Amino acid sequence: MERVYNFNAGPSAMPLDVLKEVQAEFLDFNHTGMSIVEISHRSAAYQDMQDDTIAVLKRLMHIPEGYHVIFMQGGGSMQFLMHGANFLKTRGGYLNTGVWSDKAMKAASYYGEVYEVASSKEDHFSYIPDESTFTVKDGTDYVYMTSNNTIHGTEWKTFPHVDVPLICDMSSDFLSRPVDVSQFDYIYAGVQKNVGPAGVVVGIIKDDMLQKARENLPAMLSYRTFVEHDSTYNTPPVFCIYFVNRVLHWIENQGGLQAIQKRNEKKAAIVYDAIDRSQGFYTGHATKDSRSLMNVTFNLGNADLEKEFVAAGARQNLIGIKGHRSLGGCRASIYNAVTEEACQALADFMDEFRKQH
Ligand SMILES: *Cc1c(COP(=O)(O)O)cnc(C)c1O
């Protein structure tokens, strides 16, 4: 078996060590004589594992007192609706920096007024707006943002300070760098970009924020249900949470989020340098100061050449470098599990392809 260089945007590359560990213990989870997919979510073996997952996450992110960690299903898209159901009473402000925040704004509008606090839409979402351009209206329940824009390849380098609660979709750069959790009132992340298989969303919710959540919601739409029942009101996605557990331990063994960030910066520089030294053969989509460490987006001038680029890459085991259908061009997603070696292989290929064309 040959493993390829995987640049898929999500689901995406997972650490090889974790895949092997999961494989090795798949038939017998923690001496239960059963697979993790066979044990009861009401068993002590499961509960211990879930508790440990939360404990490791709290260590890694330095989550302060006064926050709860919850696990939900329905992906990021369900959160687009759920944050509105819980928190939108009068109006919600959105930092519209890409397709995902746009969708969140539309979904939440079912519950009240939504508006843009700032947007980079007019420039094809190629940059992160400056805080000085924000307008937050009176009576705003929260400001909502997307820390990393998976499709357009931009990322907030620092997080804005607003006078209302801050909600953040961290799906595509979750655990790629340290963040100050205390700046946020609600963080969520679908795990399938950086920390696990598709099927679970991690939520980190501040207790004060939970107090503000709308009452009288259907149980499965209410964050209270997940906090009050420790994410086991119904059957949680047992396998996904277990897999996330193993990835969290892997991150801890790598030296934690500071070490991961350093590595991600080095990896991203390898690929961005290949764009920058190409003298316009490759054009980056994001402005330089807004470049994502997770998703490198670029184009090659014309669609035929891009097609050839993607096909030639695939022949060298470079997989997943076609851009998102809504933006076109090319994209290399270089999440935590993508190695420096893979980034170097891509950069070498980009140099070679440029010389040939
Ligand atoms: C992929 C992605 C989503 C959508 O996640 P689904 O689980 O497919 O609904 C939402 N937000 C961001 C930032 C993403 O990258």
From TrEMBL:
Positions of modified residues (N6-(pyridoxal phosphate)lysine): K193
Annotated compartments: Cytoplasm
Sequence positions that bind pyridoxal 5'-phosphate: G76, S77, W100, T150, D169, Q192, N234, T235
Pathway: Amino-acid biosynthesis; L-serine biosynthesis; L-serine from 3-phospho-D-glycerate: step 2/3
SUPFAM superfamilies, sorted: PLP-dependent transferases
Record keyword Transferase present: yes
Cofactor section: pyridoxal 5'-phosphate
Signal peptide: none
GO molecular function, one term: O-phospho-L-serine:2-oxoglutarate aminotransferase activity
Enzyme Commission number: 2.6.1.52
Keywords: Amino-acid biosynthesis, Aminotransferase, Cytoplasm, Pyridoxal phosphate, Serine biosynthesis, Transferase
Residues that bind L-glutamate: R42
Residues in Aminotransferase class V domain copies: 4-346
Enzyme class, UniProt record, top EC level: transferase
Note on cofactor: Binds 1 pyridoxal phosphate per subunit.
Swiss-Prot/TrEMBL catalytic activity: O-phospho-L-serine + 2-oxoglutarate = 3-phosphooxypyruvate + L-glutamate; 4-(phosphooxy)-L-threonine + 2-oxoglutarate = (R)-3-hydroxy-2-oxo-4-phosphooxybutanoate + L-glutamate
Gene3D superfamilies registered for this protein in UniProt: Aspartate Aminotransferase, domain 1, Type I PLP-dependent aspartate aminotransferase-like (Major domain)
NCBIfam families (UniProt xref): PRK05355.1, serC_1
The family this protein is said to belong to: Belongs to the class-V pyridoxal-phosphate-dependent aminotransferase family. SerC subfamily.
Quaternary state and interactors: Homodimer.
Biological role stated in the UniProt entry: Catalyzes the reversible conversion of 3-phosphohydroxypyruvate to phosphoserine and of 3-hydroxy-2-oxo-4-phosphonooxybutanoate to phosphohydroxythreonine.
Descriptive protein name: Phosphoserine aminotransferase
Organism per entry: Megasphaera hexanoica
Source taxonomy: Bacteria, Bacillati, Bacillota, Negativicutes, Veillonellales
The gene coding this protein: serC
